[in-house]
Amino acid sequence: MAVRFRLNGHFLSGPTYKVGLMLTLSGEPFAFKMVNLMAGEHRGPDYLAKARFGQIPCLEDLQNGRRLVQSAAILDYLADRLGRFGGASYDERLEAREWMFWDFDRLAAPFYRTRMIAIGFAKVHEEVAADVRRVAEAGIATLERHLAGRDWLVGDHPTIADLDVYGVLAFAGEAKIDLSAWPAVAAFVARVEALPNFGRPADVLPKADRPA
Q1: What is the arrangement of strands in the sheet containing 67-69, beginning at the earlier edge strand?
Q2: Out of 3.40.50.450, 3.90.550.10, 3.90.79.10, 1.20.1050.10, which CATH number does the structure's domain 90-194 have?
Q3: pTM over 0.70
Q4: Contact in structure between 30 and 203 (CB atoms under 8 Å)
Q5: Start and end residues for every CATH 3.40.30.10 domain found in the chain
Q6: In whole angstroms, what is the distance from residue 189 CA to residue 167 CA?
Q7: Which of 38, 110, 172, 184 is the most exposed place for a label (fewest CB within 10 A)?
Q8: pLDDT in tens, 25-60
Q9: What's the CATH number for 5-85+198-204?
Q10: Alpha-carbon distance 68 to 104, whole Å?
């Protein structure tokens, strides 16, 4: 069977992992194009021709030629194309989108930055690092309050919102954030990791190109 999708990204990228995870959980094999960020490949004309913002990830639908950027938009598209994780109703889909937009603003940005600081990719003053961590932990606290007494962010089954948020929390170890301080969030992470076909970043994203 021909591969339907090509994912352009980087194996260390959280947003790339979100998309790869959804494809993997859906049992959908995909081609992978490693984008060399250090060499500035994402700013070159070839990449910009398919990813207008010069960012990763970029998903190519090889069946219809469509190219999409921004991980939340890609997850939303895949929910329609694959018929998975889209919510049980239109209202659930709208709520899932709300969580994804919230994630980008209130969780992913400070969390990923905390990760970069912790692993030495970003150098900042201690006061700045502490403030970024505080904002990330405030986002986790919001999740803790919402997840208390429920399994998933929206409805009774996992949706793109859960995959989107998990794609941030998956890097808690690298960010040196101990999720055990938020038991409902820790339980949520365990539920996602128990889903059939689940894979961690190193299992989902190759370190080199994987052809279609």
Answers
A1: 30-34, 5-9, 58-61, 67-69
A2: 1.20.1050.10
A3: yes
A4: no
A5: 5-85+198-204
A6: 10
A7: 38
A8: 999 999 999 999 999 999 999 999 999 999 999 999
A9: 3.40.30.10
A10: 17
Does position 1 have pLDDT exceeding 80, yes or no?
no
Q: Mean pLDDT, the chain, as a whole number? A: 97
Whether pLDDT at 202 is above 70: yes
Which residues have C-beta within 8 Å of that of residue 71, sequence separation ≥ 6? Answer: 15, 16, 18, 19, 57, 164, 167
Structure tokens at 185: 């969030």
Q: How far apart are CA 55 and CA 2, in angstroms?
A: 27
Task: For 154-185, write each residue's pLDDT tens digit.
Answer: 999 999 999 999 999 999 999 999 999 999 99
